[in-house]
Specification:
With about 575 residues, the chain is of the alpha+beta class. Helices cover about 35% and strands about 20% of the residues. It has four domains: about 110 residues, Uridine Diphospho-n-acetylenolpyruvylglucosamine Reductase, domain 2; about 120 residues, Uridine Diphospho-n-acetylenolpyruvylglucosamine Reductase, domain 3 (2-Layer Sandwich), CATH 3.30.465; about 120 residues, Alpha-Beta Plaits; about 100 residues, GMP Synthetase, Chain A, domain 3 (2-Layer Sandwich). The chain contains 20 helices and 18 strands. The protein is globular and about 75 Å long.
Length: about 575
């Protein structure tokens, strides 16, 4: 069978890795205060048993699977139940609740692992001839419902796993351009680039388990996008497989040109299209030399308003940090609660000296906000950047506390999703929603979202929690990234829908977008018209219908479904 590795079927990441709170003495009291969950008495759910899943048999015809095997080899076509389940959902909270609750309305029928673009082309042509549905699959980390088949789909559903196409193919050292197979996972492509002294600079939370093709398909952003840009800026060229025709081979090619005036940008159409326009097989990415110096400095601000104002001032200044992040007081409290027990001088500084210093400044310790600001480059450049940022922080009432917390941030930055699984084990929801808005609207947006979430908690009768950080800064505005949590009642998905919907609606009601970097999928599509207008949806739907009249490519994602075969 194929050697492509996947995350565990019932949760995030790999087997044997998870969140543990026993070495974090402040965590259990924090959770009790935040959502009313007593970890000392709560019963942790047993791991789901795969053999107990109710999974309908594959609907793929034997002749069709044989034809696919003839293209990619028998070892790279699977109708195995585990493969089908792994490829049916992403890793959203809704996905994980359903998988743990044995609710699989429509699984994929067959999983195919092509080795190269030529095989992808043959699989695409065979699938279209079969009138099957094709859903590209990268790492399976999506949390917006971009992977699941429509519940009522009666056509054969093919998951096209790109995991074998995982190499850095070429680096143009003069231009800083790397050709990379779409199935390359973050750690694998970064390792290959680093061996030659390069980095892509793109580090989303899902970095460990997501691919460059998936980043492009969902228009993702990374933790260092302040310097390197989001994936739309990093992607310079693309190769996308579509159905072949008598007069053309079906491969859409976007050359890696720095800039062009060649009509509406087809590159921009592909980025964020979630597989609806074809299968991304190769990305040419802008890469950068590995920096001489990298530092993540930690700062505290007396309150959220001061932190926001400082981030805006940094965005308008001559400073060019790689990360500008500030947490509100609630998330700051959460960060403190997930710290391991301190000893010796560390405990003295964190638990006595620093709080005393803050009180002397007149700060209310319930309002303080933790910030991480990152710097990369030559030693002189980093020194100058830190000086510029330090002056801005000071002007807004903040204070620096060095690199110690920043080192911990760098170490833990990809581990947060494991906490969601832990909460699910304990019968609680923990999820995220993110948005972006102009600076002039950020404070009102923040207040509006917190108010809407708290009203939703009242509606479902739950004690809930919502916290936020500013994660990416731009000249005109920033991204706000919200995390929310509550203990489930009798209707987990229904209760989740109430809270999630309230937050998403608050985004558009207060001048934000429905998604900054997680994509649209099915999860966010109910709000797409409010985000880009009815005419915007009409243009997008017209594009999808024109280039995919049979709705074979991941139908129903981004804009509501155009065509789903339900007549058998």
């Amino acid at each position: 069978m194929t050697a492509v590795e996947h995350m565990k079927w019932w949760g995030w990441g790999v087997e044997g890795v998870g969140f543990h709170h026993e070495d974090k003495p402040a965590f259990a009291p924090f959770v009790l205060n935040a959502v009313g969950l007593d970890l000392s008495t709560a019963t942790r759910a047993e791991q789901p048993v795969f053999d107990e899943l109710n999974l309908a048999p594959s609907a793929a015809r034997a002749e069709f699977t044989a034809a696919l095997a003839g293209i990619v080899g028998e070892d790279h076509v699977s109708t195995d139940d585990m493969d089908r389940v792994v490829h049916t959902y992403g890793k959203s909270l809704r996905d994980l609740v359903r998988i743990r609750s044995n609710l699989i309305a429509r699984a994929v029928d067959v999983v195919v692992y092509p080795a190269d673009e030529a095989e992808v082309q043959k699989v695409v042509d065979a699938a279209v001839a079969e009138d099957a549905v094709l859903i590209p699959f990268g790492g399976g980390s999506n949390i917006a419902g971009s992977l699941e088949p429509h519940a009522d789909e009666t056509r054969t559903v093919v998951s096209l796993d790109m995991g074998r196409m995982n190499r850095v193919l070429d680096i143009d050292v003069e231009s800083g351009l790397a050709r990379i197979g779409a199935g390359a996972l973050g750690p694998h492509l970064e390792e290959q680039l680093a061996a030659e002294g390069w980095t892509i600079g793109h580090f989303p939370d899902s970095f460990t388990h997501s691919t460059i093709g998936g980043w492009a398909a969902t228009r993702s952003s990374g933790m260092q996008s302040d310097k390197y840009g989001d994936i739309a800026q990093i992607v310079r060229g693309l190769r996308v497989v579509r159905p072949s025709h008598d007069d053309r081979d079906g491969v859409l090619v976007i050359p890696a040109i720095p800039s062009a005036s060649t009509g509406p940008s087809v590159r921009e159409m592909i980025v964020g299209s979630e597989g609806r326009l074809g299968v991304i097989t190769e990305v040419t990415a802008q890469v950068h030399r590995v920096a001489e110096v990298r530092e993540i400095q930690a700062y505290f601000f007396p309150n959220w308003s001061a932190g926001l104002a400082a981030m805006q001032a940094i965005s308008e200044s001559d400073a060019s940090p790689i990360i500008t992040r500030v947490s509100d007081s609630r998330e700051t409290g959460f960060s403190m609660a997930t710290s391991k027990e301190r000893h010796g001088i560390d405990a003295l500084l964190a638990e006595r000296v620093l709080p005393t210093l803050m009180r002397r400044k007149g700060w209310n310790l319930e309002d303080i906000c933790l910030s991480f600001i990152g710097f990369e480059g030559g030693a002189d450049h980093v020194k100058r950047q830190k000086k510029l940022v330090g002056a801005i922080v000071k002007a807004h009432g903040g204070m620096g506390v060095g690199t110690g917390p920043g080192v911990l941030y760098d170490q833990k930055k990809f581990d947060t999703p494991y906490l969601r699984d832990f909460l699910l084990d304990m019968g609680a929801a923990g999820d995220v929603s993110e948005t972006a808005a102009p600076w002039s609207k950020l404070a009102g947006l923040y207040d509006g979202v917190v108010t809407a979430a708290n009203r939703a908690y009242d509606e479902i009768g739950a004690k809930g929690w919502i916290m936020c950080h500013l994660s990416h800064s731009y000249h005109s505005g920033a991204c706000l990234y919200f995390t929310f949590a509550f203990v489930f009642g009798d209707d987990p998905i229904g209760e989740y829908d109430v809270v999630k919907s309230a937050i998403q609606q608050a985004f558009v009601d207060n001048g934000g977008t429905i998604s900054h970097h997680h994509g649209v999928g099915l999860e966010h599509s109910p709000w797409i018209e409010q985000d880009i207008s009815a005419e915007g949806v009409a243009v997008m739907r017209g594009l999808f219908q024109a280039v995919d009249p049979g709705a074979n490519f991941n139908p129903g994602k981004v804009v509501p479904v155009d065509r789903v075969r339900v007549d058998g």
